[in-house]
Write a structure and sequence with these properties.
about 25% helix, 4 strands, 4-stranded antiparallel β-sheet, 2 helices
Length: about 100
């Protein structure tokens, strides 16, 4: 942990992240991830794909909140994200059924 700013290193929460908005481009999995640090009112988030794994510093962000109300409001937005994108689900149903879904 960076003790000056209470910002955690990815290895301190990597096994606690939640994946969302996952999709594939037939040969590449991609999506978003998040982690809520309730002790420090901080949301860590990022994107991943075959080209960059979760925690790659270039694709990882954090937002520290002074207001608990804003923190919990943003937590709710993240929690409402779907695990898989609707396009991903539709493509896999089409593969199973062998027909296009409109």
């Amino acid at each position: 942990m960076n003790t000056v700013s209470n910002i955690k290193e990815f290895n301190e929460y990597c096994e606690l992240i939640t994946y969302c908005n996952q999709d594939d481009d037939f040969d590449q999995l991609m999506g978003d991830w998040y982690f809520f640090d309730d002790m420090n009112n901080t949301i860590y988030s990022g994107v991943f794909s075959n080209d960059n794994s979760p925690g790659a510093s270039r694709y990882t962000w954090h937002k520290k909140y002074n207001s608990l109300q804003e923190y919990f409001a943003d937590c709710k937005i993240w929690q409402e994200q779907k695990e898989y994108s609707l396009e991903y689900i539709a493509r896999h149903i089409e593969r199973i059924l062998g027909e296009e879904i409109s």
